[in-house]
Specification:
By secondary structure, the protein is an alpha/beta fold. Helices cover 48% and strands 17% of the residues. It has a domain at 6-186: 2-enoyl-CoA Hydratase, Chain A, domain 1 (Alpha-Beta Complex).
């Protein structure tokens, strides 16, 4: 199945690849792409022939570079809240899919890209991968689940450090922090991802599904839906603020922002 921004394919009968394909924007997530991802994930989870879902990006430079800043620049508070809720819904579909989901990170996984990766069951990375939640450098906060999923991977204090600084992590650093399960050479990355996915797909699907269900239930704290909603509204309330306008304008003009807001 091919949509304008999302392509699905199979290298193994039981392994479905869902690839974000927006080469002109390093696979950034705009509204149209999020809607397409949602449709692809719903279809994949309901397809009995799919045993493993692999999320990746086309090309070698980017998994998902983040949310589409140029589209976000034109949003008001209401539109931003809905955008965040849609992104959270897609991430939740990855997290709550009945089948295993793998993030195959082949380049930039920043902002919304990092959030989509951490929503998958685990992350396999190319040595060229780059992770980060740089939203504060735009006068924003993570809006697709980054404020709670990142800390589940690396711990609260380290997640705060990464989000507060906007620091970017190389694949080797992400592996050391436990964010990434395995790192592969770029030249063999696709082959190694396929090996892992195929190994999983050969196992009992009912057993895999039950393992995932139980592990998700054990790891989730009470009130996750409330946290998602709170994040979306906090994300949206920043739109129209002095720093948010300056941050996205500076990005569009390819310069450093000058933040002066106090609250």
């Amino acid at each position: 199945m091919t949509q304008p921004n999302v392509v699905t394919s199979r290298q193994d009968p039981g392994v479905l690849y869902i690839s974000v394909s927006r080469a002109d924007s390093l696979n950034a997530l705009n509204l149209a792409t999020l809607h397409e991802l949602r449709s692809a994930l719903v279809a994949a989870d309901s397809d009995p022939s799919v045993r493993v879902i692999v999320l990746t990006g086309t090309g070698e430079k980017s998994f998902i570079a983040g949310a589409d800043i140029l589209e976000m620049k034109e949003m008001d508070t209401r539109e931003a809240v809905e955008f965040s809720k849609l992104g959270n819904e897609v991430a939740r579909l990855l997290e709550r899919a009945s089948k295993p989901t793998i993030a195959a990170v082949n380049g930039f996984a920043l902002g919304g890209g990092c959030e989509m990766a951490t929503a998958c069951d685990f992350i396999l990375a190319s040595e060229s991968a780059l992770f980060g939640q740089p939203e504060v450098s735009l006068g924003l906060i993570p809006g697709f689940g980054g404020t709670y999923r990142l800390m589940r991977h690396v711990g609260l204090a380290r997640a705060k450090e990464l989000i507060f600084t906007g620091k970017k992590l190389k694949a080797s650093e992400a592996y050391q922090l436990g964010l990434v399960s395995q790192v592969f050479a770029t030249s063999e990355f696709r082959e190694k991802v396929q090996e892992v996915a195929a190994q999983i797909s050969r196992n009992s699907l009912p057993a895999l599904m039950k393992c995932k269900q139980l592990m998700n239930e054990f790891s989730e704290s009470v009130g996750l839906s409330f946290k998602m909603d709170a994040e979306a509204h906090a994300f949206g309330r920043l739109f129209g603020s002095q720093d948010q306008i300056e941050g996205l304008l500076a990005f569009a003009e390819m310069r450093k922002p000058k933040f002066e807001g106090n609250s």
